[in-house]
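pinging the channel bc i need a second pair of eyes. not urgent but kinda urgent?? the chain im working w is below, pasted from the shared doc
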Amino acid sequence: MPIKELIDIISLWALPSIILLILTVAVIKKVSVYEAFIEGAKDGAKVSFNIIPYLVAIIVAISMLRASGAIDSVSVFCSGFLDIIHLPADVLPLAFVRSLSGSAALGVFSDIIANNDINSYTSKLAAIMMGSSETTFYVLTVYFGAVGIKKYRYALLTGLSADLIGIIMSIIIASVFFK
């Protein structure tokens, strides 16, 4: 059997198998699956209500940055340096916004795709960057805030370091394969 067919079969049956395994273990351990699900849903609803202020704060901050033109101004100011490192000015807003919010990054990414050819270096670099970095501030404010973690200095440093490495590696990979 070719490897592609094997992967197709595994991906088709992976989720149903996991669900069946969970239900089987629950029956063996005599756990009421429905009641456990309802308890989890109640906890999920509580967390959802707790993170609303954090979500509003991050959305307002991102909207202010985009509306003020601050990100675009930095792109124009740094355009000479950006040419040296093979980073189109169109992609710089994505590099800034990606660590703040996934939805804002998706909006910037959509703008990049709309303004450039889908097969352009700029579009490919933006796509690699979207997959190579994380929404660090979003994760810290929403998830850490939801569980009450106040001291997240090292998590912030680690997340921003990972984002920077992801951006640098995106530029290198796109330059090697698509420039």
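so The radius of gyration is 21 Å. and The CA atoms of residues 78 and 172 lie 19 Å apart. — does that match what u expected or am i reading it wrong
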